[in-house]
Amino acid sequence: MSAEFKQHNNIFLVGLMGVGKTTIGRQLAAALEVPFKDSDKEIEERTGASVSLIFEVEGEAGFRKREAAMIAELTAQKGIVLATGGGAVLNPENRNCLQDRGLVVYLHASIEELLKRTAHSRNRPLLENTNPRERLETLFNERHPFYKSVADLVVDTEHHTVKQVVKFILKRIDPTQDL
Ligand SMILES: Nc1ncnc2c1ncn2[C@@H]1O[C@H](COP(=O)(O)OP(=O)(O)OP(=O)(O)O)[C@@H](O)[C@H]1O
Ligand SMILES: O=C(O)C1=C[C@@H](O)[C@@H](O)[C@H](O)C1
Ligand SMILES: [Mg+2]
């Protein structure tokens, strides 16, 4: 069984908006029969406001503060699958929490694919009122090194189905599992 997983029994998913953290995280948690947590959703529940509204009222800096507190709290738990916010890796303390407390999986897809997946999305304030392709490219260039630096495993979600990705991660946790 993978050492990073065994110590805390946690899986943390990182990657850009639309890459599949929530979709894959839910299915992975169901397969492992453990709770699924979504950092963005936990922040919304705690605050009583959508991510978009938090950005509007408190700015990105206000959101990042709430996110750092939430990442510290959630990664302190054991036995969860956590979908992090796309920008969580920007903060060095978040990166330490993720690296030290679970198996970190970087989900990856091309900008082209992410554009398609986020085309009709709401509640992604960083893609509003902007050229989404340019914005995603900038975010990718800025964040890819951070995603890579925290990741124990990188998985392509563009050329594999959700089911295949889940199976791949499960195998990595426990290679002896017959899936
Ligand atoms: N192979 C795949 N893996 C993951 N998602 C896929 C795949 N193929 C298609 N999708 C679709 O892509 C979308 C991914 O969105 P999802 O909300 O899971 O991403 P996210 O990483 O959580 O984004 P955000 O950071 O904005 O919360 C979903 O609509 C999902 O059905
Ligand atoms: O990529 C980002 O910076 C973000 C991604 C979302 O998950 C949310 O956390 C928020 O919209 C910011
Ligand atoms: Mg999500």
From TrEMBL:
One of its GO terms (cellular component) is cytosol. It holds the Pfam family SKI. Mg(2+) binds at T22. Pathway: Metabolic intermediate biosynthesis; chorismate biosynthesis; chorismate from D-erythrose 4-phosphate and phosphoenolpyruvate: step 5/7. One of its GO terms (biological process) is chorismate biosynthetic process. ATP binds at G18, V19, G20, K21, T22, T23, R124. InterPro entries: P-loop_NTPase, Shikimate/glucono_kinase, Shikimate_kinase/TSH1, Shikimate_kinase_CS. It is found in: Cytoplasm. GO terms for molecular function: ATP binding; magnesium ion binding; shikimate kinase activity. Substrate binds at D40, R64, G86, R143. Binds 1 Mg(2+) ion per subunit. Keywords: Amino-acid biosynthesis, Aromatic amino acid biosynthesis, ATP-binding, Cytoplasm, Kinase, Magnesium, Metal-binding, Nucleotide-binding, Transferase. Its EC number is 2.7.1.71. It catalyses: shikimate + ATP = 3-phosphoshikimate + ADP + H(+). Its cofactor is Mg(2+). Belongs to the shikimate kinase family. Catalyzes the specific phosphorylation of the 3-hydroxyl group of shikimic acid using ATP as a cosubstrate. Monomer. This is Shikimate kinase.
